[in-house]
Specification:
The protein is an alpha/beta fold. The chain is built from 16 helices and nine strands. The protein has an eight-stranded parallel β-barrel, surrounded by six helices.
Length: 412
């Protein structure tokens, strides 16, 4: 393994997470997740679909936040199909988009039974290469090429596909275990072969249909590093994602930090877990999906001990029964809940109650006009989120009223 090879995190909650059946996030909630991911030192957020019209204002507004340094240094990357037209049209709608992942299916199953004669193996490679060239010519700064269903793709063809992507100018290949059929053994072997043959950084995108998602992600990243290439792991907060979900962000980071034998592998040094508690709680609230009691790191029982031997052992020395510290995950602070009168800000708020809410947040408005403007935005934000706004959302709106306005604006 080369000393310099690292493992980076690309979180895809704002893309794979939100495309999950029966759950969704508002554009403000997606924005907040980007802010929290940036605070956690995550390398890149796959922040949405540049060709989906209701995303346009959100995507452009988030790129503006990047320009202002609020969403920096995190990279914001859009997911699109690997066709020339999709690249062109995406850049018409989202002209500042600099990072892209271009996706096309590579397995016999999908080429035969999804494209149904429209594309064969050679034209899949041609389409992808043309899309990569188009993106490069139009100023893309980084391009990942997604091999959808890579885990069921013949390895010789996958290598040929990846070589063509590299030649066309792609920076990474995303190995997608789209159906979650890999095991740690198969994904290790296949990614090792792929990375050795092509010499290109590998993105590992796994699904949890067999309950192996974190193990597969770690095994895949290890294989890329062992082959002398950088690795990128795709995650979702709380393991959201299609069907049984994607790799849970916090579990992946914990496995890389504390997994036996993983100490020789270098996780991107910027990643920190001190926001883990905050981001997981927020995503749970925003998605409306509770955190299971036994979720690694952030579940209610992750640091709870009851049986005699365990409680005694944990009290004597936490290392007897705790692999890592709760403080590292931002846990341990009491959460204060108002049990008396509480004024809230929402879609039908008036100026008096609204002022009371912001005074408690220690946000000062320069005059009545500014307060009225922010009040109006908060009303819209509540309609937009369809649930009570949290303090950090209220502060975000007050600090970035123009951006907030853009985020809420959708014209069908
Ligand atoms: Zn996926």
């Amino acid at each position: 393994m080369s000393e310099k090879n690292k493992i980076y995190i690309i979180d895809v909650t704002d893309r794979d997470g939100v495309q999950t059946s029966r759950i969704c996030l508002s554009k403000l909630q997606k924005t907040m997740l980007n802010i929290y991911l940036n605070e956690m030192g995550i390398f890149q957020s796959e922040f949405g679909f540049p060709l989906t019209r209701h995303e346009t204002n959100y995507l452009n507004a988030n790129l503006e936040l990047a320009k202002k340094g609020i969403l920096s240094p995190i990279r914001l990357e859009g997911w699109l199909r690997a066709t020339r037209d999709d690249v062109k049209n995406s850049l018409k709608l989202v002209p500042q988009l600099k990072h892209m992942n271009l996706s096309i299916s590579t397995s016999d199953q999908m080429i035969l039974h999804k494209f149904k004669g429209k594309l064969d193996h050679q034209s899949v490679i041609k389409e992808m290469a043309e899309a990569v060239k188009e993106a490069t010519e139009r100023g893309a700064e980084s391009i990942g090429v997604n091999a959808e269903d890579a885990s069921r793709t013949r390895i010789e063809y996958l290598i040929e596909f990846a070589q063509a992507a590299k030649k066309a100018g792609a920076d990474r290949i995303r190995y997608c275990d789209t159906l979650g059929c890999d095991t740690p053994f198969t994904i290790y072997e296949r990614i090792k072969l792929l990375a050795e043959a092509v010499g290109i950084p590998i993105e590992v995108h796994c699904h949890n249909d067999l309950g192996l998602v974190v193990a597969n992600s770690i095994a895949g990243a290890k294989a890329a590093n062992d082959a002398g290439c950088d690795a990128y792991i795709n995650t979702c907060v709380n393991g959201m994602g299609e069907r049984a979900g994607n790799a849970d962000l916090v579990s992946v980071i914990l496995a890389l930090k504390y997994g036996s034998g993983m100490q020789d592998y270098i996780l991107d040094e910027r990643v920190n877990l001190k926001n883990a508690w905050k981001i997981c709680k927020y995503a749970s609230y925003a998605f409306g999906v509770p955190i299971p009691i036994n979720q690694p790191g952030v579940g209610a029982n992750a640091f709870a001990h009851e049986s005699g031997i365990h409680a005694d052992g944990a009290l004597k020395d936490r290392r007897n029964y705790e692999l890592y510290d709760y403080e590292e995950l931002g846990r341990g602070e009491p959460e204060i809940i108002e049990t008396g009168r509480k004024i809230t800000a929402g879609e039908y708020s008036g100026i008096k109650g609204f002022r009371n809410v912001y005074e408690k947040l220690e946000v000062v408005f320069k005059d009545d006009a500014e307060a009225t403007e922010v009040l109006e935005l908060v009303r819209y934000a509540n309609v937009h989120n369809q649930e009570p706004l949290i303090d950090e959302e209220l502060k975000f709106i007050a600090k970035n009223p123009d951006i907030a306005r853009k985020i809420f604006t959708m014209v069908p």
